[in-house]
Amino acid sequence: IGRSLEKHKGCDILDLNPGAGLWSSKLHDFLKPRNHVLLESDPKLFRPYLQPLVDQPGSTYRFVEGDPTLYSTFDKLIDDGYFPDQTRIDPGDSRAQEPNNTLLVTGTLMWNPKLPGMGFDSVARQIHGAFARMAWRNEGFHAMGPARMLFWILSEDIKRALPRGVHGTGKNTAVFMKTTDMVEVVSPGHPDPRAWFRSARYEIESLIQAMKRAKEAGIELPAHRRENIHDFADDVARMTKGTGNIGFAELNEYLRKQEESGKSTEGITLGQHRQLWIREKAFKANPPPPPQRTSKRGAPRVSDEQRNLNKVRASVTRHSNVRQKIDQAVDLGERIYQQECLILSTPDGARKEKETLKLKKLQTEFHEAWENIDKNIRTLVFGELDDRLMLRSPGPRLQWDERPFEPLVLQPDEIYPPVHASLVDNTPRPRPADESIEDFEYFTDFTTALVGPTDSIIDVMDNVQHGASELTEQVPALRDPKKGGRLDLSQLRVRNLTPEMIQGLCKAYREWPFRNPDAATSNYFRSRASTPKVKGIKLSKF
C-alpha cells in the first residue's frame, strides 16, 4: 500500500492504542507526519515504549492518555487543540464528504482479554462499524472530513464486515459496502478462522482473479509473504488458462497429489479427505504386518488398520459422489442464470419466446438434479451456486472478491500474543449528495429487516410486511442482469442483494402508502428485532 500512502505524506496521524509503537514508528518514518498523536488507553503498560519516541529531538509525536472506545474522546482531542492544522466542517457543507487526506487514522482495535461491547461480543467489532458510519455523519475524527483508517484487528472481528464467501454475509455487510472501501492488507493466512466460509474451488478462483489484478497493477506478493495456496492458485491458473474455473473432482485430485508430495493442504482441503490422504501415505510407507490368522473361509484376515482405512475411504468416496451431484446441480443453476440474463437482454418477439422455452427446460433439469440429492443437504446447492455467481456475475457483490491484491501473510512470530490478526485499510466512500443522514439511518435500520439470508427477496419482503413483495417491481436493479439481477426473483436470495438493490427497496417501502405507520422512524426494525419473545408470542413494547 506504499504507493497509496504517498498522498498522506506530511499529514496528521491519529494513532489509537499504539501499544509498543512498532507499527507506529514504521508508518511515521515513511509518512514523516507534521503531527502524530499517540492515543493510548493503557499508559501504565505502554508509556515506557512510547515516551522515547516523544522525547526524540524534533519529534512530532505527542502522547495522550485516552479511551478510543468513547467517541467523546475524539471531540475532546480536537477541542483541546491536538490538531491545530485541521478545521471542523459542517456536515451540511458541500465539501463535507470530500476525503481528508491530511489526516490518517491508524491503530490497534484488539484487547487481551477480548473486550465485549454493547450488544456485541467484541467492542472492536462495534467501534469498527461505528467509525465507518461516523464518516457519513462527519462525527468523531471524521469531523474534519472523512479520513482513511488503517486498523489492526482480530480476523474474526471483520468476518461479517469483509466476508470471504456468501455464508459469511450479514446485515452489516451491506452497510460496510455502502460506506467503506475495505481492503485486507495483512492476513493470518491458512488455516484461518474464516476458512470454512467458502469451498476451495471458489477460494482459489477468487485468489487467481486477485493475483491477476495485482500483476496488472505491478504488484507482486513477496515470497516470504506467500503460502501453499498461492502456489496452488498458480498451478490451477495454468490448468484452466487463467480462469480458475475447476471442478471439485479435478481440484481434489490435484490437492491429493500436492499433499502426497509433502505440500500441506490444511485449511484448504476438507479435513476428512486430507486425513485419508495422510493415512494412505503412511500406510504405503509402513504397511502393518499381515494377520497370522485366516477367516473362516480360509482367506487372510484384514488388519485393523486396513479395515479402518477402508471405512474412511468409503466415507470419503460417498462424500465425493455427493459433491459431484451438487456440482451438477450448481452447473445447471449457473446455466439458468445465464439464460435469464439472455432473456432479459432480448427484445420481445419469437427469439425471446424460444429462449424462454429453453429456460423452462433447464429449470426442469435443475429440479430433477435437486431431487437426486439427499434432503438434508440440498441447501448446500444454493450456497455453492451463490458463491459461484458472486464470482462470475456482474455488479458489486463481495468486497473480498474485488480486492486489488492478495493480503500479505502474517507470520505467527510477528505478533504477540499470538492471534489471528489482520491489517484492514478502510477508505470512506462519499455519501451521495441526494442522500441525507436520515436516509442512511433508515437504510441501516432496513437491513435489519432483511433476515433469512437464504430466503428469496419475495419471501423476505412479505415478512417485512404483508404485501410488500409488490415493491420489488419498483426496483429495476433487481432485474438488471448488468447489476446482478434475476428474471426469477424467487431465485434472488437476500445475501445476493447489492447495496443499490437494498437502497431501492428501502426507498420504495418508505414511500409505500400501506407502510406500517410505526415504520416512519429509523429505528423501527431494530427495535422490532430486539423485542423479547415468550413461547413464540411477541411481547408488546411500552
TrEMBL record:
Region (Disordered), start-end ranges: 282-320
Gene Ontology molecular function: any one: RNA binding
Keywords: Methyltransferase, RNA-binding, S-adenosyl-L-methionine, Transferase
Location (main, coarse): mitochondrion
Keyword Signal part of the UniProt annotation: no
Any single GO BP term: transcription initiation at mitochondrial promoter
GO cellular component terms, semicolon-separated: mitochondrial DNA-directed RNA polymerase complex; mitochondrial matrix
Compartments (UniProt record): Mitochondrion
InterPro entries in the cross-refs: KsgA/Erm (IPR001737), rRNA_Ade_diMease-like_C (IPR023165), SAM-dependent_MTases_sf (IPR029063)
UniProt function note: Mitochondrial transcription factor that confers selective promoter recognition on the core subunit of the yeast mitochondrial RNA polymerase. Interacts with DNA in a non-specific manner.
Protein known as: Mitochondrial transcription factor 1
Native source species: Westerdykella ornata
